[in-house]
Amino acid sequence: MSRGDREITQGMLKHSMRDNYSEHGVEEYYRKVGLTYRNPHFPGVKTVLWLWFNKLWSMEGERIDQTDFNIFDMACGSGEATLSLIEWWQAGRKAFDVSQSPAAAASAPLRGQARAAQLEPPNLSPQSKRPSIYAADPFTAEAFHARTGLHNCSELSFKDVAEGLLPPAPLTSAEALLKSTAAEPSSIALEMTICSFALHLIESQSELFSLLWELSTKCRWLIVVAPHKKPEIKEGWGWVKWDVESWAETQMSDVRGEILRDRVHCRVYRSVNVNDS
Question: Is 11 part of a structural domain of the chain?
Answer without folding.
Answer: no
